[in-house]
Amino acid sequence: MQIPVSAVRSGEVSGAMRDNLLTINGISYIQVQPIFLYESLWCLLLFLLLMAMRRKKKYEGELFMIYLAGYGLGRFFFEWFRTDKLYIPGTKVGISLVISAILFAVFMPVVIIRRVMAQKRDTIRRQRRKRFLDESVKEKKMFPETSEMKPEPEIRPEMDEQVKPDVGTSPTNSKEEQ
């Protein structure tokens, strides 16, 4: 993308920009990249990825950590194209570059490790459940008389009347108090 030098304030044109000026028909242009467009497209792609992964998440907070790692990864590459970087004093390393690298380097291993641990826990749970079901099937085969469910006794209406409490005989409703 090319922007005429006259359209930019002179204080915003860096030495690297001046070194790479392009002159067409007597007008000097600055070569720039639409970083905001790239970053917006990256965030849209990351959003679509997170929406696709939403149903397959293994633990709480996984999608947020994937977002942080993905944003850090994208931002790390976009910072290389920027011409207006804020550097760490005494170095040529951009502050945003370091922060985005840290985001990716911290959260991506955490996501991977926690996901592997969650998968292992699920495998162990499935094995235990299968073992329990296999044992209960063996018990039913070995002791068929104890494993059968006995029907519950039928409640007859005569019994129902005998069980009903007498409402007027509670100590608070006695005839002496009236």
**What coarse outline follows from CA principal-axis ratios?**
elongated
- Average pLDDT for all residues: 82
Could you name the ranges where pLDDT drops below 50 across 5 or more consecutive residues?
A: none
Secondary structural class: mainly alpha
Topology:
Blueprint: E1 2-4, H1 15-19, E2 22-24, E3 27-31, H2 35-53, H3 62-81, H4 95-142, H5 144-147, H6 157-163
Antiparallel strand pairs: 1-3, 2-3
How would you sum up this structure, described in words?
It is a single chain. The chain has helices at residues 15-19, 35-53, 62-81, 95-142, 144-147, 157-163, and strands spanning 2-4, 22-24, 27-31. It is mainly alpha-helical and 178 residues long.
Features of the shown structure:
single chain, 178 residues, mainly alpha, three-stranded antiparallel beta sheet
